[in-house]
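Please complete every field before forwarding. Incomplete forms are returned to the sender.

SECTION A: IDENTIFIERS
Entry label: holo-225
Bound molecule: flavin mononucleotide
Molecule representation: SMILES string

SECTION B: INPUTS
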Amino acid sequence: MTDISPDLASMDAPHGREPTNDLWEAMFSQRAIRYWKDKPVPRELLEKVVLAGSKAPSGSNMQPWVFVIIDEEEKRLAVSNALRDRVGESEMMQQLMAEGKKSDDKSVRLMMNGAEAFFNQLGKAPALIVPCLYNLASPTNDPTTLHAGSSIYLAVQNMLLAARGLGLGTVMTTAQDSVDDVLRAQLNLPDDAHPVALIPIGYPEAKFGKTKRKPLSEILRFNAW
Ligand SMILES: Cc1cc2nc3c(=O)[nH]c(=O)nc-3n(C[C@H](O)[C@H](O)[C@H](O)COP(=O)(O)O)c2cc1C
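SECTION C: PREDICTED COMPLEX
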């Protein structure tokens, strides 16, 4: 039998912008991209991303989702500008970012730089994906619960990986809540559709690459805590 598993310990995620069909390479180099080229993403690729999402498992295989993609400039700017004005430029966020960027903790500084980039760059993303819970019945019918999320966030992760595979950059965010009313108005969402994420997608103006994650020694236990 052929051993197809890579030597993970020695695996280094390639830094670059190239597409890949390799699952491990995609998983190891998929990272939050917050800078995009001014270049539209063909709908054929956006469809592939959603197709990958649609292969995810869900409670009782109910597939309680509809994915709305915004690639019309007027609509996506209505959403991204609302988010920038309401959250990015709010006094609280400005203060948080200013303080965070001076922090001694590098990870806090990076996070705050990331937050700032997100609000400033969002309008440049050529498309936004809005995954919506819809017809949710299993494992719960309450869209506000953790269990509801379990029936759609696997699809979201499939989409992030598929995008990485296609050479497209994404960043998972839960910023949709701050612009729920704008999304509902712009996208004509029915009352029983519930946006659960807001994911910009586009050709990256930053590189994919190695991510900083906790080592297995810290997070894995066999048989007992
Ligand atoms: C639930 C969730 C919410 C997030 N919300 C935001 C957000 O509002 N803005 C943002 O820029 N990134 C957001 N992120 C992206 C994370 O900051 C990012 O995935 C994490 O820092 C790891 O980054 P890396 O993959 O580049 O290492 C979110 C990620 C998750 C999973």
